[in-house]
Amino acid sequence: MAKRITDSTPIRDGYFMPAEFAPQDGVFMIWPERPDNWRDGAKPAQAAFCAVAAAIAQFEPVTMLVSNAQFENARARLPEAVRVVECTTDDAWVRDCGPTFLIDGRGGRRAADWRFNAWGGLYDGLYFPWANDDRVAQKICELTNTDSYRTDGFVLEGGSIHVDGEGTVLTTEMCLLSPGRNPDLDKHAIEKMLCAYLGCEKVLWLKDGIDPDETNGHIDDVACFIRPGEVACIWTDDKNHPFYEQARAAYDALSRMTDAKGRALKVHKLCLTKKPCLLHGAETIDRVAGSIPRESGEVAIASYMNFLIVNGGVIVPQYDDENDALALSQVQAMFPERRVVGVATREIAYGGGNIHCITQQLPRA
Amino acid sequence: MAKRITDSTPIRDGYFMPAEFAPQDGVFMIWPERPDNWRDGAKPAQAAFCAVAAAIAQFEPVTMLVSNAQFENARARLPEAVRVVECTTDDAWVRDCGPTFLIDGRGGRRAADWRFNAWGGLYDGLYFPWANDDRVAQKICELTNTDSYRTDGFVLEGGSIHVDGEGTVLTTEMCLLSPGRNPDLDKHAIEKMLCAYLGCEKVLWLKDGIDPDETNGHIDDVACFIRPGEVACIWTDDKNHPFYEQARAAYDALSRMTDAKGRALKVHKLCLTKKPCLLHGAETIDRVAGSIPRESGEVAIASYMNFLIVNGGVIVPQYDDENDALALSQVQAMFPERRVVGVATREIAYGGGNIHCITQQLPRA
């Protein structure tokens, strides 16, 4: 049912990645468990993933991919409405290792299956090996009977791109030009690949993300499209905030950009946490060669921008921070037609990402 | 999406197991791989499973459950039309460890999830442990969003029962009364469980099956319903055939039986192989404590009865035996409205079963 297409490209076949705000048939997630990334044997993270799954399941179907070892526990912990399907992975970031689903606007749905190398491979990747993660996209395509384009040489994570569904891709140089991704391709060649596999015409480049050491600056902590011609971007007035400079630079750059349709972007500000979110309890994280060590006191990458848009809703991270309510009200103002739901996700930030990183939407064909 | 129902029974809720000849939405299989059961690293068996999957896929969708280790190989070997989904198992007998799907005739579909103990548990089971197999039914129910009745204490394998979908169950005493199944229940209590969970009224008991040492005499090597009021039964005139006595006894017993509707059964004869099917090449089977050893020269359980009925077709084992063509013509005569397809499956018989044992149909709701 699920073909691997290697002799064509999505753009040639009329397929494109729809915006996240387009209608969806459901969301995939992966159950966290590796004790060398998540503190306390991943139990607090599992509780947070359950809360995220429950929040999304109010709006649309959720499928949780779970290892055989954790199958029974995940099934027992998750709401009944969540479907649990076995899948071996290397960690829990389906945004980055899962497929990028594409549609053709005429009832067809396919997917791009990028090469995944754990955010930098042997250059500066976060763990080794990553072979199970690199098979996740294909497994989801099999599950959903989706034909896929396997971009064999080309490394990309879903968290490093946002699209408006109308020809524009937004990304960062810090990530896509990093030596751990596609060192043999220059910026122009990468633009060509993005356009061919996302069905786009124009690539908007921000310079930096906020986590050079983890994802090498994924866009999904910095900015995203909220509707055609409009983006949200992180913002703070606090010059001492660890993300102040990157936020300002992103905001200024976006404010000068036009999209594929020639529209000047309208940029909405989204606050950052008042205080940096600092990792606690890192001493319970297993110490394993090949995984980057985490230490208590490190700045966790806690961005309200890492929300997920679902049918009729937006699921927004909350960090037990003074600005939590402000972030919710700002997101609600951006999406007056959707119900905004906050979920406490410090534990997910401790592991290196948040709600957008741990979800992958299945757009409606 | 998939509830576990423990406070009711199928018969109370109006659910029953439909006959195999009722319409189906698809078939599940499990990829064989354990080298202590299948010769030559399971490679010949994998080829035979591919042929069976391809034959079924001509008629209806097939989902192959595969371990993570064999995922890529299975995907590469199987026809594109077959969906491949990860699932950890202990071996490849989804008839026995999978769910028994039930319908209510009003659009509803549920399942019975029996306890599985590898054909006899610690008494005379064929391998240990079997915990992965015992989770297969639940995993298939999750995949298909099917609510299931978990019969916690009650051990049953799908291969030990056949139903006519009109109130009758056919089974064997050799299996269901064996000390390795439900030693605390007497025949009457077992009848009550079968009727409650299969939505039946009458249990027809044959005495013996043909493989006392493997499945303890599963019915699906001996007889099956081919339509309401009619059964097929193995038959041979050769008194030296290893299954001569059991075949005669089954035929005679069935010829005297009436079903739940009071109909005297019409019994169709199905030949056995001319020559016993003897295991070859057992020296390449891994030797592992806890698995029953296999030896070259053993009689493999090769029965033409172990066919699978699918939408518009019947998939029938072929053993490279003089009676192969006769078996096909007899099955064709039983099912004039279906296309009969033979598949060479000696390798599957070497592992202890055949086409019916390695498949589980999903009836149409």
State the largest interface: A-B, 24 and 24 residues
Distance between the termini of chain A: 16 Å
Structural class of chain A: alpha/beta
Shape of chain A: globular
Radius of gyration of chain A: 19 Å
Q: Write down the secondary-structure element order of chain A.
A: EHEHEHEHEEHHHEEEHHEEEHEEEHEHE
Largest sheet of chain A: 4 strands, mixed
Instruction: State the oligomer.
Output: homodimer
Task: Let me know the average pLDDT of chain A.
Answer: 97
Uncertain stretches of chain A:
none
Number of strands of chain A: 17
Strand proportion of chain A, as a percent range, falls in 15-25%
How much helix is in the residues of chain A?
10-25%
Q: Count of helices of chain A?
A: 12
Order of strands across the biggest sheet of chain A? 1-7-6-5
Topology:
The structure is a homodimer of 365-residue chains.
Chain A: E1 4-5, H1 10-13, E2 24-30, H2 43-57, E3 62-66, H3 71-77, E4 83-86, H4 94-97, E5 100-103, E6 109-115, H5 121-124, H6 131-134, H7 136-143, E7 147-155, E8 162-163, E9 168-172, H8 173-176, H9 187-198, E10 202-206, E11 223-227, E12 230-235, H10 244-255, E13 266-271, E14 308-310, E15 313-318, H11 324-334, E16 339-344, H12 346-351, E17 360-363
Parallel strand pairs in A: 1-7, 2-3, 3-4, 6-7, 9-10, 12-13, 15-16
Antiparallel strand pairs in A: 2-17, 5-6, 8-9, 11-12, 14-15
What would you note in describing this structure?
The structure is a homodimer of 365-residue chains. With 365 residues, chain A is of the alpha/beta class. Chain A has helices spanning 10-13, 43-57, 71-77, 94-97, 121-124, 131-134, 136-143, 173-176, 187-198, 244-255, 324-334, 346-351, and strands at residues 4-5, 24-30, 62-66, 83-86, 100-103, 109-115, 147-155, 162-163, 168-172, 202-206, 223-227, 230-235, 266-271, 308-310, 313-318, 339-344, 360-363. In chain A, a hairpin with a 2-residue loop joins strand 14 and strand 15. The two termini of chain A are 16 Å apart. In chain A, strands 1-7-6-5 form a four-stranded mixed beta sheet, sandwiched between helices. Chain A has a four-stranded mixed beta sheet with strand order 4-3-2-17. A three-stranded mixed beta sheet of chain A has the order 8-9-10. Helices cover 25% and strands 24% of the residues of chain A. The longest helix of chain A has 15 residues, at 43-57. Chain A has twelve helices and 17 strands. The A-B interface holds A 1-3, 61, 68, 71-72, 75, 80-88, 132, 135, 138-139, 142-143, 145 and B 1-3, 61, 68, 71-72, 75, 80-88, 132, 135, 138-139, 142-143, 145.
